[in-house]
Amino acid sequence: xxxxxxYELSEALKIKYPxxxxxxxxxxxxxxxxxxIDVLMTFFxxxxxEAENIMLEVHKKDKGLCGIYTKEIAETKVMxxxxxxxxxxxxxxxxxEEE
Length: 99
Hints:
Number of domains: 1
Strand content: 15-25%
Radius of gyration: 19 Å
Structural class: alpha+beta
Number of helices: 4
Strand order of the largest sheet: 2-1-3
Largest sheet: 3 strands, antiparallel
Distance between the termini: 41 Å
Order of helices and strands: HEHHEHE
Oligomer: single chain
């Protein structure tokens, strides 16, 4: 291959970034606010203040944004929330939506 051809091939390559997904915690009438804060701090690495603000958003708007991730990480976060909630007897749910 000539240098010119190599250059043309490298120009044709485009980097395609993976789709990103928003992860939300959904409101329910049974899960304690303290448990929601704990979940946000544990799985989403939020400070207490950030977790409290998201928890209040969940309470007022029926869902709160926890973070934006690649598909696999978002799916894992949703499963972690559901498992911890189930293990603790709460109906708390998380969902993901494409950004």
